[in-house]
Amino acid sequence: MDYSPLRTALADVVAIPVTPYDAQGAVDRTAYRALLRRLLDGGVKAVTPNGNTGEFYALTLEERRLVTELTVEEAAGRAAVLVGVGHDAATAVEAARHARAAGADMVMVHQPVYPYVAQDGWIDYHRTIAEAVPGLGVVPYLRNPLIEGAAIARLGEECPNVIGVKYAVQDATRFAAVSRDAGLDRFVWVAGLAELYAPSYWAVGATGFTSGLVNVAPNVSLDMLGALRAGDYPGAMKVWEQIRRFEDLRAERQSANNVTVVKEALAAMGLCRRDVRAPSKPLPEPRRAEVAAIVEGWSV
């Protein structure tokens, strides 16, 4: 199978859409479709329903399936759809097969939350999922600095449909080593820590980055992508400075407000409710005003 179109889609801004809720706490289908259209109209070429910014672990099985189906329907070939799957291996396989049946292009495998992870066990987990959906591209989401490049390389040798890695370890030096040990050209390397880490990761091999901020300001994220592709690091850092406070708010207290800040910005723009599910929590009033002021300054 020719995976080059999917590899091209990953080497871009990979948007992680939020999952909006209605007044009764259910997934707001109308708002979700509108937010997706805004991303697509803004030029986004890859979307990841059921990512962490989409509150993957707070959604029920039925809701995750619904979000998958809505995304595929709304994308309608305008962007590649990379569905987040995870939990135990059997659940992840079932979700991956559902994604394939719905018409998705790829699956992103959330890092296993099991506390005891062996290198070979990590390979086995991802192989089980990849072999279950040979027609889909597979992208492991890696947050564990102990997973070595050799393990990723072996997974790639055994599973040709593992085409990219979303790398989200806060260490650009570690990323440079792991990506080269695994195969810099074998996989598409996606900076999984979004815009603030994108310039440093890009400098040592990443060709795409994930984004939750793109929900709010697609033009800002795409401006950074354009600068990085042009090798214009001063231009990329100009965007970095513009978004720094927003992303710092998301990162506070081990990213406690990662989703909350994005939804607050969207609420300030009248695009969806600010509601998030526990264990996340809406922002207090002073922070709401600060987020609204930041977004107003972006002219989005």
TrEMBL record:
Keywords: Lyase
Keyword RNA-binding on entry: no
Domain of life: Bacteria
Catalytic residues of the enzyme: 141 (proton donor/acceptor), 166 (schiff-base intermediate with substrate)
CDD domains membership: DHDPS-like (cd00408)
GO molecular function ontology, one term from the record: 4-hydroxy-tetrahydrodipicolinate synthase activity
Keyword Lipoprotein included in the entry's annotation: no
List of residues binding pyruvate: 53
Pfam families documented for this protein: DHDPS
Family the UniProt entry places it in: Belongs to the DapA family.
PANTHER family: 5-DEHYDRO-4-DEOXYGLUCARATE DEHYDRATASE 2-RELATED, DIHYDRODIPICOLINATE SYNTHASE
Listed name of the protein: Dihydrodipicolinate synthase family protein
Organism: Streptomyces malaysiensis subsp. samsunensis
